[in-house]
Amino acid sequence: MGTENAKQVLKRFPVTGMSCAGCAANIERTLKNQSGVFQASVNFADKTAQVEYDPDSISPEKLCELVQGVGYGMIVEDSREAKEMVKKMEEDNYEQLRKRTIWAAVFTVPLVILGMFFMDAPGAKIAMWALATPMLAWFGRDFFINAWKQARVGAANMDTLVALSTGIAYVFSVFNTLYPQFWTSRGLTAHVYFEAAGVIITFILLGKLLEERAKAKTSSALKSLMSLKPKMLTLIDQEGLTKEIPISEVKVGNVILVKPGEKIPVDGHVLEGNSYVDESLLSGEPVPVLKEKNSKVWAGSLNQKGSLQFAAEKVGSETMLSQIIQRVQEAQGSKAPVQKLADRIAGIFVPAVMLIAIITFFAWWIWGGPNGLNMGILAMVTVLVIACPCALGLATPTAIMVGIGKGATEGILIKDAASLELANKIDILVLDKTGTITKGEPQVTEVVWEKGIDEDYWQQVFYSLEMRSEHPLAEAIVHHFKKSKAQQELDNVESISGKGIQAMHKGKMVLTGNHSYIQENKLELSEYLSEKTVKWNDSANTLVYFANLEKVLGVATISDPIKEGSKDAIQELKQMGIAVHLLSGDKEESVAVVASQVGITDYQSAMLPSGKEDFISKLQSEGKIVAMAGDGINDSQALARANVSIAMGKGSDIAKEVAQLTLISNDLDKIPAAIRLSRKTVATIRQNLFWAFVYNLIGIPIAAGLLYPINGFMLNPMIAGAAMAMSSVSVVSNSLRLKWAV
Fold it and tell me: What is the DSSP string of 639-664?
């Protein structure tokens, strides 16, 4: 619930005390119903609440009170100490769970042996009672404590089912041990179920232990990213001396030394030194990147052999690594549309199971014959044990966490779970040309000189002239000739807008520019240069002419080269059944050439930003799910209109802001990888939900005794406990298979 024109703050808070999906649904419902809260999403898998709220209407402390009011805890402090406290708390809880599971197993072995082989031995029931009591009262105490907390606020969760089932079995067994004559006087046997109560506790503890271990692996990608942050760095002060300081103390402008084998602590640009840097955990690209003066370096990348001195540009939460971690956390905490049904079921699951258990008990008691009461209690306990909302609650978030984490390690940032799910349905991918298919960096592909001239000398003049030009294409020519370094003296340098640049060299005019500028100066190409350049005109390259007032001395051809892998990526998309369209604001010839080179048959040229948006709208009106990939400000309209928007990593900030998927490495081959990841994640979610639903749909009726009238089969509560524990573990394990996707 929210108010108009209110501030919106999105924060994630660790939540304590959750034991099942019903808990998550209860907390989420409580938060959503609070005034000042726009949206809330509680993730049972990573035990966090992601809340979007108005800080002027409600404080984090008030949110914490609300969560405490329904029997749970929430950590609202955002300091480093608080985060370390949460981590320590999780480690302590896991260690306690491990110890309780081990001790419960130790007590279970003699309890099962007595129950199976020595049930009628003298004192056997007393011994079983003695063994079962600490199992419930100590090893399984959290089930009863949490169930009581829920009962106090009129709620129920997984702990309620476990506490009821084991508690009923235990109390019934104690009564039969102390007052066996109540049954024997009626010609019936005084059965005890101490071993069932004890084994159920052990199996569920074991299941929780395995589940926690598996859930920890679902966030391993995020932990890998977090581990990239070094805690200390080497600062070079104004006197040139070095000292170690905590990363939290570094400021923008500080000069930092990174030695071979060290991680780069913050974003910046190199001042001195050169080295190869491994950026694979940020970009997904395994090849180290050469860093030299003025090169950008990113926090979390690994310096290899050389030392680097660089100036800090972005620190703390502003670094690209911190932004990635924040986006991944937010995405992992979001919910996919497919989860809505599971959430609704989880919210009513426990009360429904309790009702089924009560009906089962009375049905057996009324129609079960002389032993109906015994059978009713046994069936009721089994129903309570086998029911598992955890599998339903874990089905979607675990797959989302692994899928989004896997994407991050591959250089694919996914905005939220809905985007990941929707990418599975893409019919058409619309691509921009410049910076998406092509590199977006004009390069000289070839230079041809007139026969019989001193090429080295005139190259220096050409280089010197372009050095003084501000035209974007001049940079490509300067870069091409930069190895020569030598410059010639020029005077009276003058830029001719839209045409070129001219200057005086040793008293004679030299000029460089486009074809119309050459014609304006009544200069014609020699037969030799004409033959060489005719194929370039056909290829829609840009030609830059260099001349003096006597003749054209040389011609350079400039093109925006296609990225390596673009053609293969487009072919792969086609094989996946996705149609590919190319939209560009460039001229017809250039777009046609690029389209033919990468195998695209559907393309549009000379398109304005609004035209791209209209084109996507037209495709959507035909019922298509359209994805758009672009990198520029001019693409932002179309990106916002598309069902799934994809920003190339080196593109504009506004494109990244609009996009649902961002490719850090700027490579087109990441798009089919992202779609494959989406398809596999959605398939995994469907598998998880299917088995979670089927498990409960089949398990609960069998536990109630549905097969007994047919073949005399009654499910043992101990087997039900094992099945319930393993259902959650199997769902998480299935999600973990996504780690090997893409």
Answer: HHHSSEEEEETTS-HHHHHH-SEEET
The tokens for 51 are: 């809340």
CB burial string 204-239: b at 16+ within 10 A, e below? bbbbbbbbeebbebbbbbbeebeebbbeebbbbeee
Contact 18, 44 (CB under 8 A): yes
Average pLDDT of the segment spanning 486-499: 84
Burial class for 78, CB neighbours closer than 10 Å (0-12, 13-18, 19+):
exposed
CA 660 to centroid of chain Cα atoms: 11
Contacts of 374 (CB under 8 A, 6+ apart): 188, 189, 191
Q: 58-67, 136-145, 658-667: which has the minimum mean pLDDT?
A: 658-667
Dihedral Cα 278, 280, 282, 284, nearest 10 deg: 160
Tokens of 202: 């052990």
Residues with active-site annotation: 432
Closest CA to 289 of 273, 271, 301: 301
pLDDT tens, position by position, 635-664: 777 888 899 988 877 644 555 566 788 888
Please state the rounded mean pLDDT for residues 581-596: 85
CA angle, residues 726, 728, 732, in degrees to nearest 5: 115
CA distance 292 to 269: 9
d(CA 446, CA 456): 15
As to burial, measured by CB atoms within 10 angstroms (0-12 exposed, 13-18 middle, 19+ buried), residue 609 is: middle
Q: What is the identity of the amino acid at 218?
A: T
Per-residue pLDDT, 652: 45
Integer Cα distance of 383 and 720 in angstroms? 8
pLDDT tens track for 600-617: 999 998 887 788 889 999
Query: Strand pairing partners for 243?
Result: 235
Q: Which residues contact 184 (CB under 8 A, 6 or more apart)?
A: 190
21 burial (CB, 10 Å; 0-12 / 13-18 / 19+) is buried
Q: Give the whole-angstrom CA distance, residue 102 versus residue 105.
A: 5
- Report the C-alpha gap between 126 and 105 in whole angstroms: 19
SS (H, E, C) 407-431: HHHCCEEECCHHHHHHHHHCCEEEE
Strand order in the sheet with 644-648: 412-414, 661-663, 644-648, 626-630, 428-432, 579-583, 602-604
Q: Which domains are delineated in the chain? A: 9-78 (3.30.70.100), 87-220+330-400+682-740 (no CATH), 229-262+267-314 (2.70.150.10), 425-433+564-664 (3.40.50.1000), 443-559 (3.40.1110.10)
Please report, for residues 133, 256, 279, 297, 312, the alpha-carbon distance to residue 288 in angstroms, rounded to integers and kept in the order given: 61, 21, 7, 12, 21
* Beta partners for residue 309, in sequence order: 257, 272
What's the pLDDT score for residue 219? 67
The amino acid occupying position 220 is S
pTM summary value: 0.74
Residue 741 CA to residue 403 CA, distance in Å, equals: 9
